[in-house]
């Protein structure tokens, strides 16, 4: 009767002194997989976003979280005058990245998206632009 109790105690103590499973988060950073789909980023070229407002990304988005409004410059080239992604609705599927014909959108490895207000989860064009 005491032998099974001591055997259980031995197993418990052996698990107690192993390497900890939990990361001490702010100090220890988790390793993110190379194909992880995190926060979106608009690629830049010649000091403006590459997006040509073709409306393919909002069309293929199953969550309907992307809003694009087109604008036209002096050379009659289209650009995204307004580009927004509502991260509360986004399911991080990556269809928008695959659909983009000019490779203007990519998904970064940023996974820390916590905020206190709902408005902070709507990412506008200026906030999505890559910092070079």
Brief rundown of the structure:
Helix content is 22%, strand content 22%. It is of the alpha+beta class.
Report on this model:
It is a single chain. Helix content is 22%, strand content 22%. The protein has one domain (31-128): Alpha-Beta Plaits (2-Layer Sandwich), CATH 3.30.70.3270. Strand 2 and strand 3 form a beta hairpin. The protein is α+β, with helices and mostly antiparallel strands. The protein has a three-stranded antiparallel beta sheet. The protein has a two-stranded antiparallel ribbon with strand order 1-6. It has a two-stranded antiparallel ribbon with strand order 2-3. The chain has helices at 2-16, 56-60, 95-99, 125-128, and strands at 40-42, 44-45, 48-49, 66-72, 78-86, 105-107, 122-124.
Keywords:
4 helices, alpha+beta, 7 strands, 3-stranded antiparallel β-sheet
- Assembly state: single chain
Could you describe the largest sheet, including whether it forms a barrel? 3 strands, antiparallel
Strand content: 15-25%
Summed up, the domain count is 1
Q: Ends: how far apart?
A: 68 Å
Task: Give start-end ranges of low-pLDDT stretches.
Answer: none
What's the number of extended β-strand segments?
7
CATH topology, by name, is: Alpha-Beta Plaits
The CATH class assignment is Alpha Beta
Round the Cα radius of gyration to an integer and report it.
23 Å
Q: What is the H/E order?
A: HEEEHEEHEEH
The coarse silhouette is elongated
């Amino acid at each position: 009767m005491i032998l099974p109790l001591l055997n259980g105690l031995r197993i418990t103590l052996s698990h107690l002194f192993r390497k900890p499973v939990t990361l001490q988060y702010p100090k220890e950073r988790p390793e993110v997989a190379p194909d992880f789909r995190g926060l979106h980023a608009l690629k830049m070229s010649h000091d403006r976003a590459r997006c040509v407002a073709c409306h393919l990304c909002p069309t293929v988005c199953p969550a309907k979280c992307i809003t694009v409004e087109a604008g036209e410059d002096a050379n009659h080239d289209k650009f995204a005058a307004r580009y927004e992604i509502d991260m509360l609705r986004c399911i991080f599927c990556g269809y928008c990245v695959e659909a983009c014909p000019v490779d203007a959108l990519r998904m970064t490895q940023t996974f820390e998206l916590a905020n206190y207000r709902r408005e902070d989860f709507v990412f506008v064009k200026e906030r999505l632009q890559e910092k070079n």
